[in-house]
Amino acid sequence: MAHPSAQRSKKGILPKPKPPVYSKPSVQTNPILANRATIAGVNLTSLIRRPKAKLFGKKQSAKFVLDSNTWEWNKSNNLLMYRFGTEKRSTRIAAFDFDGCLVKTSLYQREPDAWSVLFPKKTEAVLHELSDNGYKLVIISNQGGIGRAKKSKNEEISKVKTRVTSFIGEMQSKKELPMDVLISTNKQSVFHKPDVGMWNFFKENLNGDVKIDMEKSFYVGDAAGRRTDFADSDAKFAKSAGLQFFNEKQFFVQSGYKKLL
Fold first, then answer.
1. What strands lie across the sheet with 136-142, from one edge to the other?
2. Is-contact 45 36, C-beta < 8 A?
3. What fold does the segment set 64-260 form as a domain?
4. End-to-end Cα spacing for the chain
5. pTM of the complete model
6. Domain range summary for the chain, segments of one domain joined by +
7. Does 107 or 225 have the greater pLDDT score?
8. What would the pLDDT profile of 104-134 be if each residue is shown by its tens digit?
9. Could you give the CA distance from residue 138 to residue 93 in angstroms, rounded to a whole number?
10. For residues 29 and 132, what is the distance between their CA atoms, to the nearest angstrom?
11. pLDDT tops 70 at residue 10
């Protein structure tokens, strides 16, 4: 006797229905990888571990304008900027880290006046010599303490501003020393060294249309990967940016900059 669930036709038992054919779901392209979007020249595909930052301004092609003697903080990009004195454009760029390179600071003393010039007998003279020989001076610094601030980020920003402007002011004892400043305020930003976001943003927005001579341009920093250094982020930053690199002692004590003049 046939199974009670079996269905019959005039010719006998109907064949079992065929199982549905499985088809693989279409693969959707990752919009970030497909777009290969860039921010200030930084390829986001290599920085996918970091949160996506917004572009400056409404149009990516529009140049950012930094007014003289005015601080600018782009909060969404965690980038703090300042231009001291008259705007200067040059084919040759002298770029410096701040803490441990131009000034001596302490992790345990965070007051605005808790700093001193690292090489007081040389720093001002060297910076003026570079400027007099056509170099544009730029400070490119990480200040991740702002992003880590538990209470007020504005308070931490104010401290950093005071330190930087006080240092620049001290370098003006004889004459004006034009200088641009770029500071990353958050470790997770695409502008944080050793990533080259700050350098690319500077090239594209803060030096006009002047092409930079990379053989004559350089970066000086204390995170050089030496045994006693806390990191090698400055050396990696310079290498990735295509800049010559000096640690602070090579540059100021051993006068390594002389060969570039």
1. 71-74, 79-84, 179-184, 136-142, 93-96, 218-220, 244-246
2. yes
3. Rossmann fold (3.40.50)
4. 105
5. 0.76
6. 64-260
7. 225
8. 988 777 788 889 999 999 999 999 999 999 9
9. 7
10. 53
11. no
